[in-house]
Amino acid sequence: MYATPVIYPVSTIPKQYRWLILANPMTPIVEGFRFAFLGAGAFDLGQLLYSFGFMIAVLLFGVLLFNQVERTFMDTV
Question: 27-38 vs 15-22: helix axis angle to the nearest 10?
């Protein structure tokens, strides 16, 4: 939660730690909204594609995990 720059812009973070904040997949989305609504912030298509790719990977992992657990889920509940 604290790694997502909701209150503070990414530009205020020192360059040596900026990679750590940009590793969070929510950062490009928040920065994109900040850029669209306030005109401040950064909009980077590469970071947005990274966020989209991360979302697809988590979705595929969730679907595969659900398909594995679905068969025995009712027995354990």
Answer: 100
Entry pTM: 0.77
Q: How far apart are CA 5 and CA 49, in angstroms?
A: 18
Residue 22 tokens, joined: 């940009």
CA 54 to chain centre: 7
So where are the chain's domains?
Answer: 10-76
* Burial track 34-56 (b if 16+ CB lie within 10 A, e otherwise): beeeeeebeeeeebbebbeeeee
pLDDT, one tens digit per residue, over 33-77 is: 888 888 887 788 999 999 999 999 999 999 999 998 888 877 766
